[in-house]
Amino acid sequence: MFMLRMTSAIALTIAMAGTMAHADTKPAPKDIVIVHGALVDGLGWRAVYNILTKDGFHVTIVEEPLTSLAEDVDATKRAIDQQTGLVVLVGHSYGGSVITEAGADPKVSALVYVAALQPDAGETSGQLLSKYAPPSDAMRATIDRSTPDKFFYMLPAKFREGYAADVPAKDAQFLADSQQQLAEKAVAAPVSVAAWRTKPSYAILTTQDRAISPELQRWMYQRSGAKVTEVAASHAVFISQPEVVARVIEAAAK
Fold first, then answer.
1. What is the pLDDT of residues 101-158, one digit of tens each?
2. What is the C-alpha separation between 134 and 114, in angstroms, rounded?
3. Is the pLDDT of residue 4 over 80?
4. How far is the C-alpha of 111 from the C-alpha of 201, rounded, in Å?
5. Which architecture characterizes domain 28-253 according to CATH?
6. Who's near 36: CB < 8 A, 6+ residues apart?
7. I need a surface site. Which of 30, 78, 112, 196 has the fewest CB within 10 A?
8. Pairing between strand 201-206 and 108-114?
9. Whether 206 contacts 237, CB under 8 Å
10. How many angstroms from the chain centroid is the CA of residue 223?
11. Where are the domains of the chain?
12. Whole-prediction pTM
């Protein structure tokens, strides 16, 4: 009788342990939310989208208005709210500032910075950009150029040089002629929280970037402790090397 009771107790303990272990295991994120950067829209992410969806992920691309940091964060939060499970939140360029704040949402499990700004709480995009000089004359000219109502843009003739040097000329010209201008006040607004301080972050550092200095990228990503993948690519790495970008996003989902 004693052995029977002992055997039953052991069996019950093992069963309970298995149930608890199962309860504590969170499912891997299957929802990916992508936030594009300044001067472009979400269409350039089609190749990355195709890879991720083929691999079984549900992908949402945020078309933020680029009118203010607060409005861009709100647009991103709406997209996060629509997801049914945990989310990997991806930001490119200025979109990195957006996901740094929006990523505080409990649904977000990891952050991916693609040649992106990664401010700390209280920092602005403009402060980070001023830390290292822009690597190209095209971007230096852009910083001083805006519309009468204070929206940044890049001269189309200089776009490929400064933004998409490794993208085919016709595709780069399309990007130049379909620019999504960024409000000056968006880069002057500080983020209120830095989600990367409490959540794992991954980063793609573009070593041939002429828009955001590779040195600035390295400094930001070392500060945050992000898992960094260096790629010999321009600022438009999501177009020129979509497979690499997709693999990093998938790694963050695991």
1. 999 999 999 999 999 999 999 999 999 998 987 665 655 555 546 688 899 888 888 8
2. 17
3. no
4. 5
5. 3-Layer(aba) Sandwich (3.40)
6. 42, 44, 45, 61, 62, 63, 64, 92, 93, 95, 180
7. 78
8. parallel
9. yes
10. 17
11. 28-253
12. 0.87
